């Protein structure tokens, strides 16, 4: 509980309206898209850097834990107040400050929703590629803190690849700039990219400068249906090895096909083992050439059916399947836990088969979606959170998936982050020295340890 | 007690948050308890005994347009709107209704009180409004932009059965309160077009308010009498089609009646049977070759999707194709035509600030089309859009009014 004195100090900065402490407010800031919940003591909604800075001065003076949050669509509990204190929610600080067409960059506040920002830049024929599945809800600030990836990772990379600079507020309340608006910048350590993906443990991001690309002139979508999952996997390998870089390369397994057919009736064959959805983009001529080439790869690897879109509208139709996939699967059971272990792309097929084996071995329903082009698996684990015994089996299946990813040189998390969901696995991938180094960095930014306490860095320490 | 089937819904929420940004109310307020996900989680907390249904929760639950945008966007297929509606009904037991709603609903459930009130309303209304401040508003709508009451209710202007020689069809017409008492021009247009097409129209005289405003405010028991009466009148064996010109009445007759009866543990058989017979007027008219009856009218028209038509009834293309069939008419799609106008029945009166914020976006989209007519098959949207437009010469009409205008 915050004392009345402290609440008064916070209210003096943001006003009563943006300091929320009702039970209804606290309960609705206790969760994100992960299963665990932690109730904060208050929720604050700053609207400017000055306000953030003043709030942090109060918080650090009284050693109050502060956990930054965007839309709360994270999958790992990263934005939850694990040690109580206040949640600093950026949804009301949501202006696009500048879109600079001459130098192709934009400056936004952290609460801007990713897809809304994308829409705005596309009106000016520009392009902001990072495209996490939650883009219609997730904020730019959240995306920076978690270094979000998404469907276009295979060609365009992730959030970090588009970051040029940040304005941050340190836990002490000091405002600091990192990076710049220039295309190149090697001045000192790259603090911008260090903060990106730090899960809100180092500083509060108050302005974000991102690089923009010219909008690709054309895009074509291919849908290839396979009788054998190996053939789909081989196609992926073949495409990547041939030097074609698709804009997206998505795989859906048999269970997803079945769920899609049950729910959306898209006309996918139920006896197929896998569907690949492939986007190529760029200049029209190049795109058509690539689409043809990719279609041939698919056929040569045994695809039973390949469809190539002829227009933007066709693209959308083919993407319907992928866009509905998560929903179709999620409605099969009450709870759906989304894994995101990632393997080197050449291990994709074996990884998917391994997941299926784990699914059977533990009697846990798992459907597999994958950003196949970057080896990023999304096993969707279906369960009912209320069933303790089932959840234990789910936990075990997840452990085994992580074991496998580690054994082939993969990573714990491709794009969702560690948060508390995967904290226990952290020592599997990071050496003691690496962890100590990270903690030392944290200490430099946040000597009092008030920013997002209970984060991945503290796992195994005091709980 | 909320039906088990509806209670279970809370456990299907995976808290992904995909309902946040599409929610018009959340986009005005930007805090979680105002969002669908927030409300679902609060309801879950109440079910599990961690939260008392407080005054604050009550307020939050009614800070919702019931536009159903969350329901259609939910990847897990939660029937969020049904959960909210059921919860509202629970809370009415505890908190009661505000007096204004009590008065209004008592009028709407009575076939005697309403005509009496309207009679005096017509006589005294003008005097009343001339006495009070001209700049005043009902919610977001200025007094000057409120519609006049029909001089005579629509149903009093027509015989119960409008026969035609060699009928090409036969329908029961559910007129709804808005057409009957406020927008008679819509009713005239509907009847005019149907008669032109050679359709026999039967307007059951005893029909009552669809009661949707009543049961969506939570007062389900109060609505039962209306529901039963309407079921009895419109489930006639001899006519297999019921037409509605109001999105809200359509939603009530097509599905809400069945939902609430079922949730209240009553038999929903008759309601489901009626639901299968009901068509929005735009759906019904598409069965006819309209072209031969129409002459060109040269106007620019845009279309706004009423929540109760688009999301409750999944009627999207029909009104548009109706408009596109009118020769000479230039149809322009507005940006975000499917976003709620901010009306939400009593919502705009209870939350004028939020409503006008939402309406601003709608008005902007309308202006960008440079259309002189906004077509929309919902009297609520009509009130809200017209009430929030400036002084520009843009008219808000029912699509069928334009069709009637184009009749040869």
Features:
heterodimer; A: 463 residues; alpha+beta; Uridine Diphospho-n-acetylenolpyruvylglucosamine Reductase, domain 3; Alpha-Beta Plaits; 5-stranded antiparallel sheet; 15 helices; 18 strands; 36% helix; B: 408 residues; alpha/beta; Fumarate Reductase Iron-sulfur Protein, Chain B, domain 2; Rossmann fold; globular
Written overview of the protein:
- The complex is a heterodimer of chains A (463) and B (408).
- Chain A is 36% helix and 21% strand.
- Chain A is of the alpha+beta class.
- Among the domains of chain A are: 1-215, Uridine Diphospho-n-acetylenolpyruvylglucosamine Reductase, domain 3 (2-Layer Sandwich); 216-315, Alpha-Beta Plaits (2-Layer Sandwich).
- In chain A, the strands form four sheets. Chain A has a seven-stranded antiparallel beta sheet with strand order 15-12-14-13-17-18-16, sandwiched between helices. In chain A, strands 5-6-10-8-9 form a five-stranded antiparallel beta sheet.
- In chain A, helix 8 packs antiparallel against helix 12 (348-361) and helix 9 (254-264) packs across helix 11.
- The model of chain A has no long low-confidence stretch (mean pLDDT 94).
- Among the domains of chain B are: 4-95, Fumarate Reductase Iron-sulfur Protein, Chain B, domain 2; 291-405, Rossmann fold.
- Chain B contains 22 helices and eleven strands.
- Chain B has helices at 4-7, 26-29, 36-47, 55-61, 69-73, 80-95, 99-108, 113-131, 154-157, 176-182, 184-196, 212-216, 220-234, 247-263, 269-277, 281-285, 307-310, 317-324, 347-350, 352-369, 379-388, 399-405; strands at residues 137-138, 141-142, 161-162, 169-174, 199-202, 242-244, 278-280, 300-303, 330-332, 373-375, 395-397.
- Chain B has a five-stranded mixed beta sheet with strand order 3-5-4-6-7. In chain B, strands 9-8-10-11 form a four-stranded parallel beta sheet, sandwiched between helices.
- In chain B, helix 21 links the parallel strand 10 (373-375) and strand 11.
- In chain B, helix 3 packs across helix 6, helix 10 crosses helix 11 and helix 18 (317-324) packs parallel to helix 22.
- The longest helix of chain B has 19 residues, at 113-131.
- Chain B is globular, with a radius of gyration of 21 Å.
- The mean pLDDT of chain B is 93.
- Chains A and B meet through helix 2 and helix 11 of A and helix 3 and helix 4 of B.
